[in-house]
Design a protein that fits this description.
Four copies of one chain form a homotetramer. Chain A is an alpha/beta fold. Chain A contains seven helices and 15 strands. In chain A, 27% of the residues lie in helices and 33% in strands.
Amino acid sequence: MIIMRILIDSKGRKYLAKDDDLHTDAGYIKKEEIENSSPGDVLETHLGKKYTVLEANINDYIDLMERRCSIILPKDMGIVAAYTGLGCGNQVLDAGTGAGATAIFLANIVGPQGHVYSYEIREDFAEIAKRNIEGFGLENVAVKCQDLSENLEEKNLDLVFLDLPKPWLVADEAHAALKTGGFLANYTPFVDQVMTLHHVLKKVGFSNLESVECLLRGIEVKSKGTRPKTRMTGHTGYLTFARKL
Amino acid sequence: MIIMRILIDSKGRKYLAKDDDLHTDAGYIKKEEIENSSPGDVLETHLGKKYTVLEANINDYIDLMERRCSIILPKDMGIVAAYTGLGCGNQVLDAGTGAGATAIFLANIVGPQGHVYSYEIREDFAEIAKRNIEGFGLENVAVKCQDLSENLEEKNLDLVFLDLPKPWLVADEAHAALKTGGFLANYTPFVDQVMTLHHVLKKVGFSNLESVECLLRGIEVKSKGTRPKTRMTGHTGYLTFARKL
Amino acid sequence: MIIMRILIDSKGRKYLAKDDDLHTDAGYIKKEEIENSSPGDVLETHLGKKYTVLEANINDYIDLMERRCSIILPKDMGIVAAYTGLGCGNQVLDAGTGAGATAIFLANIVGPQGHVYSYEIREDFAEIAKRNIEGFGLENVAVKCQDLSENLEEKNLDLVFLDLPKPWLVADEAHAALKTGGFLANYTPFVDQVMTLHHVLKKVGFSNLESVECLLRGIEVKSKGTRPKTRMTGHTGYLTFARKL
Amino acid sequence: MIIMRILIDSKGRKYLAKDDDLHTDAGYIKKEEIENSSPGDVLETHLGKKYTVLEANINDYIDLMERRCSIILPKDMGIVAAYTGLGCGNQVLDAGTGAGATAIFLANIVGPQGHVYSYEIREDFAEIAKRNIEGFGLENVAVKCQDLSENLEEKNLDLVFLDLPKPWLVADEAHAALKTGGFLANYTPFVDQVMTLHHVLKKVGFSNLESVECLLRGIEVKSKGTRPKTRMTGHTGYLTFARKL
């Protein structure tokens, strides 16, 4: 597995170390210096700004990787992992891939004994996703540039995660691909989608349907006082869960 | 690894299969029938109520295991996993253990290549936690009945998770035990605790401090209409994150 | 105007003083004692429990009056008043009346120079509402036991407030009854209703459509710490506003 | 009472009509045309953009009036009005005035039979507030450029509303100024302030202490689907209520 290195300052501002000199907003650091550094080392730009060298974790990497479409926030993927009991060794399916952030999140949890099958119909996105996944050194993800409804081979999955405009179109396939006890998890921004999805999931035979939304609010602790942050995201998407029984 | 089996009805009501006849609220099922069943099988009570046999996932198990103290909800542990980039193979510390739900959640993600060191000062809780962890067949958790601040041996950890009344008392130990780039994550119900913790974490040298709260709201999709659920938990705890840089 | 008196203990537990001895959960107080008391006096039950005599404000009264249907919470009516700039002297329409809580809220603000026309099709509710409104001594409310869509006489209103299962059926009437610059405000529990309503209100010619939901969360300040309350109402209804321009 | 006129377009964009030509972002309208118009008339700019003439309600006016400090949002003042049962004819005190938005809100509800006593220690704010209040033609507000704690004359008030950095410093005065059954309502951004305030209010003898926060979320109804709005204000201030019994 490739170790990705990032350089991070004390405020959390991060840079991905590539095969080149690193140009920050406060001076540059030579390629050679970075290559010879180890996690924990502190490097200085030619202007004296300090950066700590870290082994990138997945959030560092996802923040910095190539993205040409919006990605699902960690808060929502965290709820998916927790509600479905996702763990090391699980076999999961993810559709659509987009830039690959969700596949990377899932792959990081299921690990080398697990596997992520990630479906994306747009070739340009599939290419970006492949680059991103390989770039992080993950070997347990297969990006498939095809529609989930044609020729789905996966069986006995622990989790099928859908981020599609019309997820109900693949409800049958999702059901067939899951093991008994396995979960479907779905992310959709509109409540109209949630309604249609519930209707179809019941018809297809899923049980334990549940939809939730997750509101995350930051708390600001300052010397003048403590308060929730003014800026807050009011909505990302609804999460819908169903189980094959 | 032991496979725990549960029996679940179509509404999600679950029973843990133990070495005995199973008595449900709608009749019983004989021990032998359960032992001879496989995941996916449907068993009937003597009164005809149907239950599907499942391999328990961690949520099934945590719902049904012995608990004598409150546990952290999946929504909050999901945010912890997502924010810290927790993954397969990670080395993590968890204090205090309580009934072991958090340790089980973490152990399920870090897998056999990872490890969870779980500290609990109360002997009665440590005993319950050990039974619960062994009961689920997890071999990657060490429950230690001792105070985190005495004789902490763990080093180079990816995550230190604290659920203690005064987490700031072990901020130094947590910092020492983490690898560079590792995360401290903390759960506390009171905002006063968050204030003190921020103050101490900064002093100890942690970076990227952030506190959040996660509000989860259920959505009810019924034939008469769709709406958020009336019942909602207004607060569980604040989550605080900090990174060792 | 009749002055309603209540007796309240230090925890906020209230009793409405009627023409009778008052029986509390901690003893009784004689009718004569209550009649001879003035706001601010402290009366004692025969068991020694103390109650302060108060002139009832509308919330005291609404809490204690006869109700046989659910009422809209103060938080939602407060948003209605604030968003529509409701004030003393306004002419408003309210449909359906239910037990009269909304009409009383509106009447309390618009005052003697204002007026509330309150429509209710169910005779039993209209009777309860009339009793409740008269009981509080309000003379600026007319409860009409009829459908809003038949023979609506009111014109030039500042506000039309709707709490009906199918509010879109009276969108035309509401528009006709409002003054230019006047507001329609609508309360509905289901998001499906909000969708239909938006569609129809635009068609009818309303402007500045806006829908919101109001989440109110209690904060608990205790000696052991401060935190949001665990119990919280996750949803009451959506509020939709539109203006006649 | 002066009638303020505004010109509003179909999207809700508003202009206050002053004694001058009106210059909008889509052309101008002559002073004479505006003066000769009545509420409900539609005027056109020289570029053909249409504006409806309205009698300004308080929100129109507050949005457009001179402000040099932040104001409390309608959502929060709506909760204050609803929780305290504020109505026509009430006598209320408001400190600190700021640009006068809160005083205008309160004055609009209490009406000519009621009164608002508004305290502001900064002379520049008091001057702005006076101009704003007179500009809207309100004759029931007295802006006092003095500290609430010196020489408070008001008695028997229905409501004391505080928007001060250290509201606990005037808790005694607030208690003395209220009638029995009257309410103190307080707005503060920091939770630390809420803690101190609770402590002092109890000491001073207030009852029924309660603190809440109001989260308002917009709902977007579009042809592509319905969803909560992405942008949301995560926090404005905590509202604390207490009653004099």
